[in-house]
């Protein structure tokens, strides 16, 4: 019986009935989170796929890189600005100026429920000061730092991440999305909450303009083509990002893995998460806040049995009770990760994990070298001596040490060692016709140091992967399967 099944069976034994949830039962369930779920997550953290699911938002959405997911976020941001600029441009014209105002949220909800009615007609129209720009006009100047924020995990920051200190933005966003769930993939969830907010307010003005255009223009599509095309482009960019982040099983798996990590952070006495690239003081500060997602104060209603068919309320009091919705989410997450937990890692997954985490990866067998995620285009089986030098440079670099002639077979003379280094650099630089490619960059990092050689890389940027004891060789691993770029290898 593995830890996952052990956790599931333990919960079945302590699960509360419909009228049994009280402080004692809550204590048992919290003990289950601490003593059964936390060790399960400790095991899961050794799985590269689990870590990539947890880090998706940080590495693929929020990072300042050119990975496809980040490019899609930037595309949505640019499309919002472009569309808002067209709206603001029309808003400067006399025939549209009266439409450049923000609609009251209560009025919108009433109209959705009742439609146009005398109640709305009698309601006083919200009036904005003439010199106060509406949200669509502010959007043309891109008031947000970014649409995505890495600090939305492990606990939501729950704000628009805007440049302005205007409290109105915070209040408007809170009214628009008053209750955003904390457990799960908060970075992706907050990304789309922000996008929905901006799109909602932009379309509020855009749709009113559309009605007026259709009523007054003989050739609306010809006369107002940029107005239409920027909104079509925005819708397409948003749909592309949703398809990437929310379609298939990946979104469910990210929610499950993030939820379990939040349990770990909340209930581990001293969580250590170097792979999460998050400062220890941050997740330790968030642990107490996360704890309130699993247990908080409620009003406990107590009942007495009157007879076989009747109960009556006997009293009410404040009690610290577990949040059963959160516990059910944890149970669902455990079920979701079951296959991931029990599946053995393939040799290819181990290599791909290394190339996504380290700048230089040297695989001993079959001979492969990756730099910045890219597999170098060199047949190392035909380059025995340069390969030996590079392998020792990586191995010694992991220990912040140098390579001298005594590391190399035959102990070449200092002059011969220098020639071998020149030969290795030439092989790297000639392996690709393009300038400044990873191989050329790696060659530039091989330095002389007092008669020895070293790599100008930190030890935590280098990894030698030796899987020969696991049966790795040219027959069990196909090197051509690693020809994809680093952008693709870092996806789930």
Quick structural overview:
This protein is an alpha+beta fold.
Which tags fit this structure?
alpha+beta, 4-stranded mixed beta sheet, two-stranded antiparallel ribbon, 21 helices, 10% strand, flat, disordered C terminus
Overview of this protein structure:
This protein has 492 residues and is an alpha+beta fold. It has a 4-stranded mixed beta sheet with strand order 5-4-3-8, with helices on both faces. It starts with a helix and ends with a helix. The C terminus is likely disordered.
**Unreliable spans:** 116-130, 485-492
- How many extended strands? 8
Mean pLDDT: 87
Run of helices and strands? HHHHHHHHHHHHHHEEHHHEEEHHHEEEH
- Outline the biggest β-sheet: 4 strands, mixed
- The oligomeric state is single chain
Explain the layout of strands and helices.
Layout: H1 3-14, H2 23-44, H3 48-54, H4 56-62, H5 68-91, H6 105-114, H7 118-122, H8 135-139, H9 167-176, H10 186-216, H11 220-223, H12 225-246, H13 250-267, H14 280-294, E1 295-307, E2 310-322, H15 324-336, H16 338-342, H17 347-357, E3 360-363, E4 368-371, E5 374-375, H18 384-397, H19 414-429, H20 438-444, E6 446-449, E7 452-455, E8 462-465, H21 486-489
Parallel strand pairs: 3-8
Antiparallel strand pairs: 1-2, 3-4, 4-5, 6-7
Helix pairs in contact: 1-2, 2-13, 3-4, 3-13, 5-10, 5-12, 13-14, 13-15, 18-19, 19-20
């Amino acid at each position: 019986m593995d830890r996952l099944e052990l956790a599931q069976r333990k919960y079945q034994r302590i699960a509360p009935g419909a009228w049994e949830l009280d402080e004692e039962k809550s204590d048992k369930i919290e003990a289950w989170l601490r003593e059964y779920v936390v060790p399960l997550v400790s095991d899961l953290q050794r799985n590269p796929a689990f870590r990539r699911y947890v880090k998706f938002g940080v590495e693929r959405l929020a990072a300042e890189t050119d990975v496809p997911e980040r490019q899609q976020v930037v595309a949505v941001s640019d499309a919002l600005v472009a569309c808002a600029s067209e709206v603001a441009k029309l808003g400067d014209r006399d025939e549209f100026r009266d439409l450049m105002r923000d609609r009251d949220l209560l009025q919108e909800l009433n109209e959705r429920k009742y439609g146009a009615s005398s109640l709305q007609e009698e309601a006083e129209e919200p009036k904005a000061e003439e010199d106060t720009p509406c949200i669509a006009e502010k959007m043309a100047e891109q008031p947000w730092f970014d649409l995505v924020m890495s600090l939305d995990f492990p606990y939501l920051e729950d704000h628009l991440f805007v440049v302005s200190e205007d409290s109105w933005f915070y209040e408007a966003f809170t009214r628009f999305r008053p209750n955003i769930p904390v457990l799960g993939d908060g970075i992706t969830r907050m990304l789309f909450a922000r996008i929905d907010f901006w799109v909602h307010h932009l379309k509020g003005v855009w749709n009113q303009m559309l009605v007026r255009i259709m009523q007054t223009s003989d050739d609306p599509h010809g006369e107002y083509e940029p107005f239409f095309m920027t909104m079509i482009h925005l819708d397409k960019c948003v749909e592309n990002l949703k398809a990437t982040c929310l379609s298939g099983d990946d979104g469910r798996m990210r929610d499950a893995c993030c939820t379990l990590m939040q349990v770990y952070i909340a209930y581990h006495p001293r969580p250590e998460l170097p792979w999460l690239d998050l400062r220890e003081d941050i997740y330790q500060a968030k642990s107490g806040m996360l704890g309130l997602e699993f247990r908080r104060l409620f009003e406990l209603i107590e009942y007495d049995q009157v007879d076989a068919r009747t109960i009556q309320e006997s009293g009410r009091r404040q009690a610290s009770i577990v949040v059963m919705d959160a516990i059910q989410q944890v149970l669902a997450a455990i079920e979701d990760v079951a296959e991931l937990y029990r599946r053995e890692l393939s040799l290819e997954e181990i290599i791909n994990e290394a190339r996504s985490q380290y700048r230089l990866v040297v695989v001993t067998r079959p001979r492969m070298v990756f730099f910045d995620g890219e597999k170098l285009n060199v047949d190392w089986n035909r380059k025995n001596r340069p390969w030996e030098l590079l392998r020792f440079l990586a191995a010694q670099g992991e220990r912040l040490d140098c390579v001298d002639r005594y590391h190399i077979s035959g102990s070449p003379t200092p002059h011969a060692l220098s020639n071998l280094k020149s030969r290795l650099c030439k092989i790297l630089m000639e392996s690709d016709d393009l300038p400044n490619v990873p191989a050329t960059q790696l060659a530039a990092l091989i330095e002389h140091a007092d008669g020895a050689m070293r790599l100008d890389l930190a030890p935590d940027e280098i990894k030698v992967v030796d899987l020969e004891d696991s049966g790795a060789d040219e027959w069990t691993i196909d090197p051509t399967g690693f020809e994809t770029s680093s952008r693709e290898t870092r996806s789930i």
